[in-house]
Amino acid sequence: MCRATALAVILMLWGIPVWGATLEWKSNTEPNLAGYHVYHCTNLPCTKSSGTATLLVTLGKVTSYEIGIPVITQYYLVTAYDFANTESDPSNIVTYVPAGATPPSLPQ
User: What is the pLDDT of residue 10?
Assistant: First the structure.
């Protein structure tokens, strides 16, 4: 079974305005890795079990995905999957806040 992957967001800035944002994560090194699923949510909690996470894209063994420039706050998580389509635990949640938007408050 694939293990969870670490997730970080890299914002690709090419002057003003921003041309796009890219999610990037550390590669899973298990030999049965088939690829990654990228999920997104528009609110918290952002989990598959809560029903708020929507599959955005299924990828092969690449370790990044361009999300463009979302106009509203978005939350992202990644899972690795193997050839039996068994998914790993999800990565940490990454939040994308568009320029000029108020960042969401953190849970207390």
Answer: 42
